[in-house]
Amino acid sequence: MKNLKIKIGIVDDDLLFVQLLKNYIDQDERYEVVLTSTSGQHFLNETKNESLDVLILDLRMANGDGLEVMSALSQKETETKIIVLSSFYRRSFMGQMLKMGAHAFLSKEIELEELLNVMHAVYHHGHYFSDEQVEVMRGQLSNKLPEFHAYSKDDLTEREIDVLKLVCQQMSTKEIADHLFISPKTVETHKTNLMIKTCVKNMAGLVIYAVQNGIVNAHEIVLLDK
Fold first, then answer.
1. Distance between CA atoms of 29 and 44, rounded to whole angstroms?
2. How far is CA 187 from the centre of its chain?
3. The pLDDT of residue 69 is above 80
C-alpha cells in the first residue's frame, strides 16, 4: 500500500508567497498541501471539518492573525502541528509562541529545504528547536519565572519521567514504546497524563517543563541534524 502523504495547510496573507510555497512543497512526495488561506478568520471558518497534519501559519495578517488561530485551535482536540513562519520573528517571542501552542517558530528567511526538514521533525517528533532557540530558552526558563503548572515533578511517576525524558530526545511514540518495552497505547496514556499534570498544551510545553524542573538539561535536548 502506498504511504499516505502528510497533509499540509498554509495560512498567510501574501497570496504570491502562499502559491509559491505550495508549489514547492507539493514537489516533495512526502507532503501534500490540501488547504491554503490568506486570512486567519477564513481558515477558521473553512476548516471546521478539515484534518491537517501540519499547519504553516503567518503571525501577523490583516484579517485574523496567527495568535487568534492558535488560540482557537488550542480550544479544539486537534493533532495538527503548528509551524509559525513569520517575517516578524524575534527570539524573545520564543517562549510565548510555545505557550500559545506553536510546535516550531521560524523566520521567513529560512531556506526552503530546511523548512521541509523542520516539517518532518515537527510531524514525527512533535517539535523543533534550533541551537539558537535552545540558548534563548535557557535564559527565559530561569528560576525567577512563575510556574505555569499545577503539579511539581515529585507528582510524576517514575515511568512518566522516563517517557518525558525520551520525548525530549525527539523519540516517536513507537520508539519510546520499543525502548521501554511497553505498548504504543501505554506511551500515549503516559503522554496524556503528563500533559494533564503539567497543564501544558503540547509536546513543546512538556520539553519546557522538563528543562524548568531540572528533569533534563537543555544541553541534552536532541536537535534536528543540520
1. 27
2. 19
3. yes
Please give the sequence-ordered ranges of beta strands (E in DSSP) within 87-217, or none if there are none.
Answer: 104-107
| 115 vs 27: CA distance, rounded Å | 14
Q: Mind listing the pLDDT tens digit for each residue in 102-117?
A: 899 999 999 999 999 9
DSSP-derived letter for residue 55 is E
What is the model's pLDDT at position 99?
A: 76
- How far, in Å, CA of 161 to CA of 165, rounded? 6
Distance in angstroms (rounded) separating the CA atoms of residues 128 and 192: 20
Are 84 and 54 in contact by the 8 Å Cβ rule? The answer is no
pLDDT band per the 50, 70, 90 thresholds, residue 18: very high
Round to whole Å and give the CA distance between 63 and 68. 10
CB count, 10 Å around CB of 94?
Answer: 23
Diameter of the chain measured on Cα atoms: 53
Rounded CA gap, 6 and 25, in Å? 11
Alpha-carbon dihedral sign for residues 194, 196, 200, 201: positive
- For 44, the enclosing helix (H) or strand (E) is helix 40-46
> DSSP string covering 1-29, please?
-PPPPEEEEEE-S-HHHHHHHHHHHHTST
Q: What is the pLDDT of residues 115-165, one digit of tens each?
A: 999 999 999 888 888 877 777 776 665 544 444 444 456 678 899 999 999
Residue pointed to by grid coordinates 510524576: 156
Tell me the CA distances in angstroms from 200 to 149, 185, 197, 204, 208, one per residue in order. Answer: 7, 20, 8, 9, 9
Checking if the pLDDT of 91 tops 80, the result is no
